[in-house]
Automatic annotation (TrEMBL), chain B:
This is Sodium:proton antiporter. One of its GO terms (cellular component) is plasma membrane. Belongs to the binding-protein-dependent transport system permease family. Keywords: Cell membrane, Membrane, Peptide transport, Protein transport, Transmembrane, Transmembrane helix, Transport. It holds the Pfam family BPD_transp_1. The chain crosses the membrane at residues 26-45, 89-112, 132-157, 201-230, 254-273. It comes from Thalassospira xianhensis MCCC 1A02616. Its main location: membrane. The keyword Transport applies. It is found in: Cell membrane. The lineage of its organism: Bacteria, Pseudomonadati, Pseudomonadota, Alphaproteobacteria, Rhodospirillales. Residues 88-273 form the ABC transmembrane type-1 domain. PANTHER family: D,D-DIPEPTIDE TRANSPORT SYSTEM PERMEASE PROTEIN DDPC-RELATED, OLIGOPEPTIDE TRANSPORT SYSTEM PERMEASE PROTEIN APPC. It is a multi-pass membrane protein. GO terms for biological process: peptide transport; protein transport; transmembrane transport.
Length: 351, 289
C-alpha cells in the first residue's frame, strides 16, 4: 500500500499537468525498463494513475470548499431545512451530532468521499432534492453545446490557420490576425447580445433563448465557437509555419511534390497531435463561454446551474459543480493524451 | 508613418504591426496617459451617476445627456466615466496584488529549487489551466459575493501566472555569468534576487501585467454581468449591460455604449502589452489565458 502510494506520488511529480509538456518531460522509461512492461501499457497506466491522483486532490479541494464558507456548516444546513429560520444552539448541536459533523475532518472527508463514489452529491439547499438528478439532466445539454462548439471552431479555425500559414503576411493573414486580437478583447456576453440583437430581434431568424429545436442551439454554439476560433487558428498558423520551415518539407518540394500535396500530406499530419492537445486545453475557455452563453440564452446546462446555485447560495450544488468541472477537465485531458499516443507512434517510442 | 514601418520577427507584435507600425513607445505613453486620465475622468461627468430621475428615463442623446439616459433616468455617459474609475482601480489592485504575491513565490521557488519548486509549479499549472471564470466565480460565491470577494477571487486565480513566469525568468537569469560572479563574490541569495535578478526580469513582469490586466477587466465585467460581481446599481460596465438587456430591442445604444467602452479599453491595454513586449524584446508570452 505504502509503496504504491509512493509510486503514485512519483508519477504525479514526473508527469506534467500540462500535457503538452508531458510528452517531452515524461520520466517513465526507467520503470518500464525495469519491469519489462509494454511501454504503451505503462504509459497508459501512468497517465490513468496521474488522473486518479489529480481527482483525489480535487475531491479534497471540493470538500474543503464547503467548509470554507462563512458561518457554521451545521447551522447553514439546518437553516435551509427549517425554511430559513435561525435554529438555536441546542438544535444545531443535536443536528451536528446526528449527522456526524463533530467528527474529525478526515473521518468526515472519507465518509463524504464514500457517498460521492455512489453518486451521492447531497441535497440542494433550495429544492431539497438530490443534486445528482439535476446534474444528470443538465450535463447532456452542456455536452451537446460543448461538442458542437468545438466542432464548429475546428471547422473554421483549421482552414483559416492553414491559409494564413501558406500565405504569411498576406491580406488574409493580416485580417485574420486583427480579427483574432479584436475577438480576444470583446467581452463574450456583449458579443452574444449583439448576435441576439441581429439574428433574433432585427432579422427574426432565430429564437432568443430556450432549448428544444436545433435552432435554439445555433446562437449559443456560434458564440462559444467564435470565441475560441481566433486562438485556435493562430495556433494552427504558428505550428504549421514552424513545420513548413523544417528540412523534410524542403526535401519533399525538391522532389517535385506540389505545394498543396506537401502541405496536406506531409505537414498537416505532424501538427495534429499538438492541435489535439491545444483543443483539450481549450476546455477551460469553452466552459467559461458556456457559463455566459447558457445564462444568456436560457440553455439548461451546467454553466447556468452554477450561476443559479451561486446566486441562491446553494453551497452543496456549488460544490457539485466544482467537482464536475474539475473531473471533466481531468477526463478531457486524459482522453486527449490517450488519443495522441494512439495517433502518433513517436510519443509511444519516447515513453 | 506606415511607409517606414517594417515587419519585425516578434510574434507578439506582428498581429498589429500591419495596422500600427512600430512605435511601441508612443503607444505605451498614449495608453499610460489614458489610464492616468481615467482616474480624473469622473470629474468631467455632467451628472451624478447614481441619481435616478424617472422623469428623464430613456432620453435620446442630447447636449445635456451626451449618451442619453438609461431605464432609470441615469446619465449613461457619467456612469461610463465612473465605471472607468471602478474598473481601472479594481483591475490594478488585482494585478499589483497578484504580481507581488506571485513573483515573491516564484522567486523563492526558483532560488530554493528542488521539491518545493516542483510542488509549487504543479500547483500553479493546475490552477491556470482550469476554467478561470468558473473557479473565480466559485471562490467569490463561497466568500459571499460583492466587490471585495470578486477582487480576492481574481487574485487567488491570477497570481499563479506570475509565479510561473517569474520563476522561469529567474531560473534563466540565474544561469548567466554575472549572477555566478556575484555568487562567487559571496553575495547572499537575498541580495542576488533583489539587486541582480529582479531588475532584469522587470520586462516580462510588466508585459504580463498589461496582458493580465485585460483579462482581469474582462472577467470583472463578466462577473458583474452575471450578477456575481458588484452591488446592483453600481456604475460598472458589465452591470450596465446586464441592466439594459431588456431594452436591447428598442434601445440598443444602452447595450452598445458600455460594450464598446469595454472593448476599446481592453484593446488599448492589449496594445500596451504588445508595445511593452516589443520594447523588452520578448517573444509571445502566455497571455492567451
Amino acid at each position: 500500500m505504502e509503496i504504491s502510494c509512493i509510486i503514485l506520488m512519483q508519477l504525479h511529480i514526473t508527469c506534467d499537468i500540462n500535457s503538452n509538456r508531458a510528452r517531452c518531460g515524461f520520466e517513465f522509461p526507467v520503470h518500464s525498463a525495469r519491469w519489462k512492461i509494454d511501454p504503451m501499457a505503462s504509459r497508459l497506466a501512468a497517465r490513468i494513475a496521474h488522473a486518479l491522483v489529480l481527482l483525489l486532490a480535487v475531491s479534497v479541494a471540493g470538500f474543503a470548499l464547503l467548509r470554507l464558507m462563512p458561518g457554521d456548516f451545521a447551522e447553514v444546513l439546518l437553516m435551509a431545512q427549517m425554511d430559513g429560520t435561525l435554529p438555536d444552539a441546542s438544535q444545531v448541536a443535536r443536528f451536528a451530532d446526528t449527522h456526524g459533523l463533530n467528527d474529525p475532518l478526515p473521518v468526515q472527508y472519507l465518509r463524504w468521499l464514500g457517498g460521492l463514489m455512489q453518486g451521492d452529491l447531497g441535497l440542494s439547499l433550495v429544492t431539497r432534492e438530490p443534486i445528482i438528478t439535476d446534474i444528470l439532466l443538465r450535463i447532456e445539454q452542456s455536452l451537446i453545446l460543448a461538442i458542437c462548439a468545438l466542432a464548429v471552431a475546428l471547422l473554421l479555425a483549421v482552414p483559416i490557420g492553414i491559409l494564413c500559414a501558406i500565405y504569411p503576411d498576406s491580406k488574409i493573414d493580416r485580417v485574420a490576425g486583427i480579427i483574432s486580437v479584436i475577438g480576444m478583447s470583446i467581452p463574450n456576453f456583449w458579443y452574444s447580445l449583439l448576435l441576439a440583437l441581429l439574428f433574433s430581434l432585427a432579422l427574426g431568424w432565430l429564437p432568443t433563448g430556450g432549448h428544444g429545436t436545433w435552432q435554439h442551439a445555433i446562437l449559443p454554439t456560434l458564440v462559444i465557437a467564435t470565441s475560441i476560433t481566433g486562438v485556435l487558428s493562430r495556433f494552427v498558423r504558428s505550428s504549421l509555419l514552424e513545420e513548413l520551415s523544417k528540412p523534410y518539407i524542403r526535401t519533399a518540394r525538391a522532389k517535385g511534390g506540389r505545394r498543396r500535396r506537401v502541405v496536406l500530406h506531409h505537414a498537416i499530419p505532424n501538427i495534429v497531435p499538438g492541435l489535439l492537445t491545444f483543443s483539450g486545453l481549450q476546455f477551460a475557455r469553452i466552459f467559461d463561454g458556456m457559463i455566459i452563453v447558457e445564462t444568456l440564452f436560457a440553455w439548461p446546462g451546467i454553466g447556468r446551474y452554477l450561476v443559479e446555485s451561486l446566486l441562491n447560495r446553494d453551497y452543496p450544488a456549488i460544490q457539485a459543480c466544482f467537482l464536475l468541472i474539475a473531473a471533466s477537465y481531468i477526463l478531457v485531458n486524459l482522453v486527449v493524451d490517450i488519443t495522441i499516443s494512439v495517433y502518433d507512434p513517436r510519443t509511444r517510442e519516447i515513453v | 508613418m506606415l511607409a517606414r514601418s517594417f515587419v519585425p520577427k516578434s510574434v507578439a507584435h506582428e498581429k498589429l504591426t500591419a495596422l500600427l507600425g512600430r512605435n511601441g513607445n508612443m503607444y505605451a505613453s498614449i495608453v499610460v496617459s489614458v489610464m492616468v486620465a481615467i482616474l480624473i475622468l469622473p470629474f468631467f461627468a455632467p451628472h451624478d451617476p447614481y441619481q435616478a430621475q424617472f422623469l428623464f428615463r430613456l432620453q435620446p442623446p442630447s447636449l445635456d445627456y451626451p449618451l442619453g439616459t438609461d431605464a432609470m433616468g441615469r446619465c449613461v455617459f457619467s456612469r461610463l466615466l465612473y465605471g472607468a474609475r471602478l474598473t481601472t482601480a479594481s483591475a490594478i489592485i488585482v494585478v499589483i496584488a497578484s504580481s507581488l504575491f506571485g513573483s515573491l513565490l516564484g522567486t523563492v521557488a526558483a532560488m530554493i529549487g528542488g521539491t518545493p519548486d516542483r510542488i509549487l509549479m504543479r500547483f500553479c499549472e493546475g490552477i491556470s489551466v482550469f476554467p478561470a471564470l468558473a473557479i473565480s466565480m466559485i471562490i467569490a460565491g463561497v466568500l459571499g459575493l460583492g466587490l471585495n470577494a470578486v477582487i480576492i477571487a481574481l487574485i487567488a486565480i491570477h497570481w499563479t501566472d506570475y509565479a510561473r513566469i517569474v520563476r522561469n525568468a529567474v531560473i534563466v537569469e540565474r544561469a548567466k555569468p554575472y549572477v555566478m560572479a556575484a555568487e562567487a563574490l559571496g553575495a547572499t541569495h537575498h541580495r542576488i534576487a533583489r539587486r541582480h535578478i529582479l531588475p532584469n526580469i522587470i520586462g516580462p513582469l510588466l508585459t504580463l501585467g498589461a496582458y493580465s490586466m485585460s483579462w482581469v477587466i474582462l472577467s470583472f465585467a463578466g462577473l458583474s454581468f452575471l450578477g456575481l460581481g458588484v452591488e446592483p446599481g453600481t456604475p460598472e460596465w458589465g452591470l450596465m449591460i446586464a441592466e439594459s438587456r431588456n431594452y436591447l430591442r428598442d434601445y440598443p445604444r444602452l447595450v452598445l455604449a458600455p460594450g464598446l467602452t469595454i472593448a476599446g479599453f481592453v484593446i488599448a491595454v492589449n496594445l500596451l502589452g504588445d508595445a511593452l513586449g516589443d520594447r523588452f524584446r520578448l517573444s509571445q508570452i502566455n497571455y492567451l489565458h
